[in-house]
């Protein structure tokens, strides 16, 4: 495919690519690069809070609060780091080099957390944070650069890419949990070092895949002008090493101080994007305003969606009836592993992504395709429905014999949340490439991930409140998840009401 995108500043020429299944061939290379990076990222996701309680609190449930806060702060900084990674790619070393350098740092961090020391563990997390900041926003931006702005395949291309994310996320918990509990360990507690080591191997595969596959990009994302100077890569690497101790200190500071820092950072980013939008004229300004409003609702979505990796993990471990559930696929294990709940989201996304993508296309043909703000509103309302199901289960379905809720309820919660995610997340990635000021698309993508990070930090704070000082109980879970239902429902309704105003600011972007 070839095409051009006219901007007020320059004409961007898209190379002629070989087409595979109706999309540019490099999309599939980026798909697999992201597959292995997400394998690494989600390979440790299920284990982090359980490992912290087991390793550093000797299994005492009182450690749940600290584990939730650390998990939320870690995720928040992972996504906040995308702001700087996007800027580095835009202005300093280009997208390809940023992705490669980020992969190196992520692999190093994953291997570091295999060491049984709390300070080294947090230094390892800090290294992953720095590496992910250089990797994650830029590979998503590269997908957008394969298509002209008016290419109708753009949203479906991002949806396919999103399936790559979830294919890696599906396989990772199943494989790492099985290796940790059945292959390298015979006791009840998984060998968490194996989880982290396997994730590190996955990250190395991602690095090698992109290194050899980037020739397919035909120069897209390669450094230009002064960015070609290899000295810049050395300088960025040195700067990244210097940032690791800062990330470590932020992890140690706690979630509450971090929330203020993240909000201040978001204010600075909003100022930079708005200034650039104003320079580009009224249309660019309005588009930037629309993007910032949607960022605010994105924070709300992820504050509750990311209970999946924190409070939902403790819910699954202690309050869900897992014994005998789906015994035909648990490879002889007496209970459905807690880790495997993390794969339910991915199965749902992989299954539903083509269906939802088809629905958007079919509705567009009939001129009834929901606007981007309405799709976001649907995402929030599906998230609300998941919390409504938990509210119902914890109110009416608790077994008095063991104080647990049925397996199917949490399984269904992950599924319903996933439908909401598909209405919001892939659309958000595409939205940023359409609405961000032309010269700061990478920074705009960083803003998307920063808003996600703020939501993730809030998720840790919320999860810590649900667990309390003594660990999660049926009562504390019911209270927290009921509040989540009402907050999300209110937010979704407000966004639906604001949708026409936001769409007007988008000046025809669909």
User: How far apart are the termini?
Assistant: 21 Å
Strand order of the largest sheet: 1-2
Beta-strand percentage range: under 5%
N-to-C series of helices and strands: EEEEHHHHHHHHHHHHHHH
Low-confidence stretches: 1-11
Overall pLDDT confidence: 87
CATH superfamily descriptor: MFS general substrate transporter like domains
Any idea what the radius of gyration is? Answer: 22 Å
CATH topology value: Growth Hormone, Chain: A
> How many domain units?
1
How many strands in all? 4
Largest sheet: 2 strands, antiparallel
Question: Shape from CA axes?
Answer: globular
Annotate the secondary structure layout.
Blueprint: E1 3-6, E2 11-14, E3 19-20, E4 23-24, H1 25-56, H2 64-93, H3 95-112, H4 118-144, H5 154-183, H6 192-213, H7 230-253, H8 255-279, H9 282-305, H10 311-318, H11 341-365, H12 372-396, H13 407-435, H14 441-467, H15 474-505
Antiparallel strand pairs: 1-2, 3-4
Verbal overview:
This protein is globular. It has 15 helices and four strands. It is mainly α. The strands form two sheets. Strands 1-2 form a two-stranded antiparallel sheet.
Descriptors for this entry?
disordered N terminus, 510 residues, two-stranded antiparallel sheet, Growth Hormone, Chain: A, mainly alpha, 74% helix, two-stranded antiparallel ribbon, 4 strands
Question: Could you write a compact summary of the structure shown?
Answer:
This protein has helices at 25-56, 64-93, 95-112, 118-144, 154-183, 192-213, 230-253, 255-279, 282-305, 311-318, 341-365, 372-396, 407-435, 441-467, 474-505; strands at 3-6, 11-14, 19-20, 23-24.
């Amino acid at each position: 495919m070839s095409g051009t995108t006219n901007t007020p500043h320059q004409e961007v020429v898209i190379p002629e690519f070989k087409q595979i299944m109706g999309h540019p061939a490099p999309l599939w290379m980026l798909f697999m690069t992201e597959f292995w990076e997400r394998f690494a990222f989600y390979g440790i996701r299920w284990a982090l809070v359980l490992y912290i309680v087991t390793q550093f609190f000797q299994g005492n449930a009182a450690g749940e609060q600290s584990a939730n806060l650390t998990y939320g702060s870690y995720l928040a900084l992972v996504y906040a780091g995308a702001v700087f990674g996007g800027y580095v790619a835009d202005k300093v070393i280009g997208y390809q080099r940023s992705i490669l350098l980020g992969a190196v740092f992520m692999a190093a961090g994953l291997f570091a957390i295999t060491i049984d020391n709390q300070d080294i563990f947090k230094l390892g997390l800090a290294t992953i944070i720095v590496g992910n900041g250089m990797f994650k926003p830029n590979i998503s931006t590269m997908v957008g650069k394969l298509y002209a702005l008016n290419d109708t395949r753009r949203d479906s291309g991002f949806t396919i890419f999103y399936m790559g994310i979830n294919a890696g996320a599906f396989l990772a918990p199943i494989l790492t949990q099985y290796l940790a509990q059945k292959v390298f360990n015979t006791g009840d507690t998984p060998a968490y070092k194996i989880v982290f080591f396997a994730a590190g191997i996955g990250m190395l595969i991602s690095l090698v895949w992109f290194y050899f596959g980037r020739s397919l990009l035909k120069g897209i994302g390669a450094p230009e002008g002064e960015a070609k100077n290899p000295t810049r890569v050395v300088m960025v690497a040195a700067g990244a090493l210097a940032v690791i101790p800062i990330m470590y200190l932020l992890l140690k500071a706690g979630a509450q101080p971090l929330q203020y820092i993240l909000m201040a950072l978001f204010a600075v980013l909003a100022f930079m994007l708005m200034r650039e939008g104003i320079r580009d004229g009224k249309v660019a300004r309005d588009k930037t305003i629309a993007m910032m409003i949607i960022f605010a609702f994105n924070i709300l979505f992820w504050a509750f969606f990311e209970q999946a990796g924190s409070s939902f993990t403790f819910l699954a471990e202690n309050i869900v009836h897992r014994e005998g559930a789906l015994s035909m696929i648990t490879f002889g294990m007496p209970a459905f592993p807690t880790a495997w709940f993390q794969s339910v989201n991915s199965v749902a996304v992989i299954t539903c992504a083509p269906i939802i993508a088809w629905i958007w296309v079919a509705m567009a043909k009939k001129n009834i395709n929901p606007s981007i703000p309405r799709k976001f509103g649907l995402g929030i309302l599906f998230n609300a429905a998941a919390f409504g199901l938990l509210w119902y289960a914890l109110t009416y379905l608790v077994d008095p014999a063991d104080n647990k809720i049925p397996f199917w309820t949490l399984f269904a919660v992950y599924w319903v949340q996933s439908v909401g995610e598909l209405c919001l997340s892939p659309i958000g990635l595409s939205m940023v490439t359409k609405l961000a000021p032309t010269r700061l698309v990478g920074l705009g993508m960083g803003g998307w991930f920063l808003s996600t990070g703020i939501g993730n930090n809030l998720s840790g704070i919320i999860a810590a409140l649900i667990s309390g000082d003594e660990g999660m109980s049926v009562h504390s879970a019911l209270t927290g998840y009921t509040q989540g239902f009402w907050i999300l429902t209110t937010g979704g309704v407000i966004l639906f009401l604001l949708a026409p105003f936001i769409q007007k600011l988008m000046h025809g972007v669909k």
